[in-house]
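Morning, I've got a small favour to ask if you have a moment. I owe you a coffee for this, so here goes:

…
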Amino acid sequence: RLTKVTGVQTCALPIFNLSDGLDALAGGLSLLVLLACALLGYVQETLLPIAVALAVSGGLVGFMRFNMHPAEVFMGDTGSQFLGYSIGVCLMMLTQGESIYSPVLPLFLLGTPVLDTAMVIYERIRSGNSPFKPDKNHLHHKLLRAGLSQEQAVISIYFLHFSLILVGFGMRFVQDYIALTVYILIFCAINEEIGRASCRERV
């Protein structure tokens, strides 16, 4: 159990910081996850994650008003890591212990940030670079290079993230290995499609 808890927090803490590359991107993704956590807590009748998720969501809505493009205020490392920590706490309360949900569910709820971070690290290692070396290969960078405006790129990532949350919600009660297999297949499909888009950019 400790390994699962540590894994969720280790994953959640940095990924929203890495996703904070466009105005309102990390905040919007976090808001989607928090609202999903509140809904899952309601279904499971677990009050504490509902309270945490809604409290943080309320503050985030007020922040998002001034973080939309062109942003007047910015989240920074502290803000994104606070969101990652809060989301990690909610996910642990929902999926650990006497939970009715699959422990694979956090992978779907963390959705786009996890997939984006995994793909970027893979590409850096494949290119012979350090996995911690900054570059311009995040999903939002690729969408901008493909010709999307900043607002279009953010909305596209919102849509992808919301879709992953819906898939996770639909698979919240299935066996762990089935949920994990579906997640890996989705990861491979998205990675393949983004790879094709990158090739078209170079052409």
Notes: The helical segments are 2-18, 25-44, 47-67, 76-95, 105-126, 139-145, 150-170, 176-202.
